[in-house]
Write a structure and sequence with these properties.
This protein is mostly helical. 66% of the residues lie in helices and 0% in strands.
Length: 94
């Protein structure tokens, strides 16, 4: 709940917010797969659940990866207007 307020703002807050549900999902997937394997003896459930968890994490964090790459190559973050950055400041000396 502490990270919910910053989930749409700063990149580090978004990263922390996404990390929490991802950890919970991974833990739940491991427990469910472990119980299912114990009950049924179907061992292929382990890699199947692992691939499913990996896919969910990749899809859920794609925008975070895109924003990180944009910052790494000095692109302008989505919340900043590039025209305001290029415009001269009224208080700056000429």
């Amino acid at each position: 709940m502490l990270f919910m307020s910053g989930r749409k703002g700063v990149l580090n807050s978004r990263r922390a917010y996404l990390h929490m549900p991802a950890d919970a999902g991974v833990s739940a997937g491991v427990v469910v797969a472990g119980v299912a394997i114990s009950v049924t003896g179907v061992y292929w459930l382990d890699p199947f659940v692992s691939l499913g968890i990996a896919l969910i994490v990749i899809i859920g964090t794609w925008s975070l990866l895109r924003d990180s790459v944009n910052l790494a190559v000095h692109a302008v973050p989505a919340l900043i207007d590039p025209d305001e950055i290029d415009a001269p400041c009224a208080n700056s000396p000429a």
